[in-house]
Amino acid sequence: MWTTFWRIIFPLLAPINATVGILTCLWAWNDFLLPLVVLSSPSAQTLPLVQYVFQGQFSTNYTLAFASYLMALAPMVLVYLFAQRWVISGVMRGSVK
């Protein structure tokens, strides 16, 4: 039964697994509230918490903020480019009858 699952069903689920992987990576990478509550040491802060420093009540340092946003965006773009093959194949399989 497990051999049937791993050889027949699991390859058909590759687009779904890629989509879930992309969404899980995005959720973990962009998590803000849990690290804000849990972490107290400035050296252990995650990237979204460090980016929060650039926004003040009365001023925002836009040049540093947008540079850090681009640097934070790069790993997620690489994850998407890696998993894009499976997502597009799933869309194409669903459109052909």
UniProtKB/TrEMBL annotation:
Keywords: Cell membrane, Membrane, Transmembrane, Transmembrane helix, Transport
Location(s), subcellular: Cell membrane
Regions crossing the membrane: 12-29, 62-83
Family label: Belongs to the binding-protein-dependent transport system permease family.
All residue ranges annotated as the ABC transmembrane type-1 domain in the record: 1-83
Primary localisation category: membrane
Name used for this protein in its record: Raffinose/stachyose/melibiose transport system permease protein
Superkingdom, taxonomy of origin: Bacteria
GO cellular component: plasma membrane
A Pfam family assignment: BPD_transp_1
Gene Ontology biological process terms, A to Z: transmembrane transport
InterPro entries: MetI-like (IPR000515), MetI-like_sf (IPR035906)
Position of the signal peptide: none
PROSITE patterns reported for this sequence: ABC_TM1
SUPFAM superfamilies: MetI-like
